[in-house]
Amino acid sequence: MEKSQSHRIHIPVYPLLLFLVHFSTLLHLISSDYVVPDKFFINCGSNEGVNDNGRNFIGDANSGSFSTPKSSKTVKPTNQLGNTSALYQTARTIQEESSYGFEFDNVKTTYLVRLHFFAFASQPNLSTAVFDVSASGFLLLHNFTAENSTNLPSIKEFFLTTQTKKLRINFTPKESSFAFVNAIEVFPAPPLNFSLDRAHKVGDHYKIPSSSSLQTVYRINVGGDEIASGSDTIWRNWKTDDVYLQTKNTAMNSQFYSNKPYYQLPDSMYAAPDLVYQTSKEMNPSASRGSKITWSFDVNKTAGHFVRVHFCDIISVSLNVLVFKLYINGNFSVEINSMDYVTQLAAPFTIDFVVHSSDSGVMNIGIGLSNSSSEPNAFLNGLEILEIMDGTAPVPIEHEPSKISIPTIVGSALGGLALVLVLMMGFFVCYKRRKPKTVENSSWGHVPTYGGGSSHSRVTELTINGSPVPNLILGLKISFAELQLATKNFNSKLVVGRGGFGQVYKGTLLNGTKVAVKRSAPGSGQGFSEFQTEIMVLSKIRHRHLVSLIGYCDESSEMILVYEFMEKGTLRDHLHDPKLPRLTWKQRLEICIGAASGLNYLHKGSSGGIIHRDVKSTNILLDENHVAKVADFGLSKSSPLEDTHVSTNVKGTLGYLDPEYFRSQQLTEKSDVYSFGVVLLEVLSARPAIDTQLPREQMNLADWAMKCKKKGVIEEILDPSIKYNINLNSLRKFSETAEKCLQEDGSSRPAMSDVIWDLEYALQLQQTSGLREPQEDSTTTASAFVLPDARRLPSIGSNYERDDTIAMSADFSSLTAGEVFSQLKMDDAR
After folding, report:
1. Would you place residue 6 in the very low, low, confident or very high pLDDT band (cuts 50, 70, 90)?
2. Mean of the pLDDT values across residues 98-118?
3. Rounded distance between C-alpha atoms, residue 368 and residue 327, angstroms
4. How many Cα atoms within 13 Å fall on the side-chain side of residue 673?
5. Which of 348, 658, 711, 776 suits a disulfide with 674, CB 3.0-4.6 Å?
6. Residue 507 in contact with residue 496, Cβ under 8 Å?
7. Helix H or strand E encompassing 8
């Protein structure tokens, strides 16, 4: 909740303004720089022109003044439309992404764009169309449908500024649907000065985007009748305010009765038509002193809004006697005195605000009395609310037709044939000389510092052992604009996870693919090397039990990874979140088998082998069928071809970290096996690897399991929800497998292929044998669970956060585990 704010906005009256207000002819000349346009007004789906309120709409079927969409058709209504304007009696349907193109004289221009939609009865049914509309990189409409119950046209109006003479309006149908449009207006906007930077800010939480468009949401003639487009210089519609008025008993309409027209300043010539300034709402004389006049508007609660209020004092008898308050959302107020803006009565002026929407999705605008006023009144003439749209969209590549001569075609064909022969010979020579492919052993090479700020792609410059990154990776690039669109500009409501790297958003790409978008946060524990590693690893592996990389984005300082979306989230969630259904023992076994299969492929199935180095329950994801997939390869390392180790700085997650790797800093595949053993215990107990909320002796799951074994109460670690549904033999085999994985000596641990075999056997035992009965002795399986009496990572104090990943570079080989923990730098944790 924002704190209540009260402001007095004062604009000094300069001598020049005092001079100008007495020379109306000069003012007219100043305002006449803008010429009311006569193009482009397009009647879509027709070869005939239509005159509508002074605008000549040209049929798009035979006009050469602009380019029309490809793969489009003309549609006409199947029924008579009666008095409906001819503008809405045809439409153009668009079957695939295409655009209307317009070319203007100026490079940097603010354009007013209006799109007209009327879903008349037709074949196909226009009300079923679902599509996006964008213009020169601005996303204007997303998943738009023109279905409505009013039987009136829907007109969408936008203001956008471009840096090019060409403006293209792109229509993108959604999957099996189509797009349509009845009419289009595009012309340079008059000097309305919709400046977000100069507007007064209401609320501290809204950051004005660097590039944005404005969509008109409300345009209100306060205190007067509806003003049709034909009565406005640039064909705007002004609605009456009564339907939005919440305090009807405190308000009354007022009108300018003088024979002398209200005084027009240059800034107001196109701000609003005369009728807006000749009427207003003012306080009802019978209203109490503390009353307000309040209007309420439904707005997009996730967007900011540009609000322009129109004033023209047509109710005061003299200057500087009326001071009143303007309220926005009830927690912001500003005093209004006409003398601060104009020097005479009945002279219009406007004040602009940028307003951060409240979570309610309702914007309240009000006026009320001020204690500093000698006249107890307040007034408002007009109001505009425009949504600030900072969504971006990809700009389609423009293919211009060109004339090509026959000799050129023949020459190109011969040259292409020669090139193919040269490439084939080169490929043959390289194939003969090719050596076995090797993968780097210790690092991915030097990488630039994160946050360089360049828009140039950084991943394309990276190398592996001096060789360029494979072209496959270039094919994975996704633009930042598309990811903004996929995640609704990284809407916080779409966050499905958080980690050391940053936040994970659920998104939908333009082709309809659901994805998980992991966006790095500046200063996160993982940097560009992890980002690069993840791309490198996932671009060269594919397996049913490894999460797939859809793409990545490295524009400017962004580091974004895009994966297939895993509907059920993480294994950890399903083990520890009480709101989620409990996994059955059979499901847990199948999940463990799947995760083990993914790790086995990493170790043995991929080129040269890969060590994950951060195996834990949060990095095992589940799809809609609870199929497990291993994820998060940012800490991965390529393993040597021989059965040896990789010397590296220690990285991993507390509770899962291999003690042998921790002490020696020598990484092997068996380090993943140890971590997976902890995951098996977590699956068995539904307890986290480290739980600082428990007594110290129970914080470390592996230590606590070993103590339970010694006491003969091993079943104390079992998840109560499955305790009586586990077959004794299945439990015995599963516990033996965990025991093998947790061996102190890495060489004594099994390979992941052996772990898979053991787990599959445990699953067979569960499926083929009878279930254990509740009255069976809980100690009958204790002898099967023998954990090594080995020195482990000591339990940590409650001041450490759970699931923190540690990164260390010092030599700890000669230290005890306790001494090592005393030297941990938790600032490096993730």
Report:
1. low
2. 87
3. 8
4. 27
5. 658
6. no
7. strand 5-8
Q: Given CA atoms 790, 796, 797, 802 in this order, what sign does their dihedral have?
A: negative
Whether the bond between 750 and the residue before it is cis, its omega within 30 degrees of 0, is: no
Return the half-sphere exposure (C-beta side, CA atoms, 13 A cut-off) of residue 191.
10
* pLDDT at residue number 421: 53
Residue with tokens 């309420």: 296
pLDDT given at position 773? 38
Instruction: Look at 15-19, 474-478, 688-692 and tell me which has the smallest mean pLDDT.
Output: 15-19
Per-residue pLDDT tens for 204-249? 655 666 667 899 999 999 999 999 999 998 999 999 999 999 988 9
Taking the C-alpha atoms of residue 364 and residue 297, their distance in angstroms, rounded to an integer, is: 6
Lowest average pLDDT, out of 1-5, 175-179, 239-243, 314-318, goes to 1-5
- Whether omega before 531 lies within 30 degrees of 0, making that bond cis, reads no
Q: How many CB atoms lie within 10 A of CB 643?
A: 11
DSSP summary character for residue 526: S
Tell how strand 620-622 and strand 628-630 pair up.
Answer: antiparallel
Dihedral angle at the C-alpha atoms of 445, 446, 450, 456, nearest 10 degrees? -90
Tell me what pLDDT residue 756 has: 95
What's the CA angle centered on 357, arms 355 and 358, to 5 degrees? 130
Q: Rounded to a whole number, what is the distance in angstroms from the first to the last CA of the chain?
A: 31
Measured distance CA(180)–CA(129) in Å, rounded: 7
pLDDT: is 24 or 289 the higher one?
289
At residue 365, φ and ψ (nearest 5 deg) are -115, 130
* Greater model confidence, 99 or 281: 281
pLDDT at 75: 94
pLDDT tens across 398-429, in order? Answer: 444 433 333 433 344 444 545 445 455 554 44
Least confident of 638-642, 687-691, 702-706, 724-728: 638-642
The predicted-structure confidence for 488-528, as pLDDT tens digits, reads as follows 988 988 998 876 567 899 999 888 889 999 998 654 445 67
Q: How far is CA 31 from the centre of its chain?
A: 42
The SS3 of residue 134 is strand
* SS3 state of residue 215: strand
Q: How far is CA 453 from the centre of its chain?
A: 20
For residues 616 and 675, the answer to whether their CB atoms sit within 8 Å is yes
CA 186/CA 116 separation, integer angstroms: 12
Place of tokens 């009748």: 225
Helices (H), 650-717: 659-664, 669-685, 701-711
In the numeric block, the tokens 């990488």 are attached to 447
> SS3 for 423?
helix
Q: HSE-up of 529 (CA within 13 Å, CB side)?
A: 11
Strand partners, 553: 560
CA pair distance 522, 450, nearest whole angstrom: 8
Number of Cβ within a 10 Å radius of residue 4:
10
Mean pLDDT of 311-340: 89
CB 217 within 8 Å of CB 385? yes
- The closest of 340, 241, 309, 339 to 9, measured between CA atoms, is 340
**Annotated active-site positions, please?**
614
Instruction: Find where tokens 């709409």 sit.
Output: 57
pTM: 0.50
Looking up tokens 């939480």 gives 205
Strands annotated E in 190-250: 200-202, 213-221, 239-240
The structural domains of the chain, ordered by start, are: 5-33+194-389 (2.60.120.430), 41-188 (2.60.120.430), 441-565 (3.30.200.20), 643-828 (1.10.510.10)
- Burial (0-12, 13-18, 19+ Cβ within 10 Å), 357: buried
Ranges 171-185, 247-261, 303-317: which has the least confidence: 247-261
The first and second tokens of residue 409, run together, are: 């075609």
DSSP string, 82-108: TTS-GGGS-EEEESSSEEEEEE-S-SS
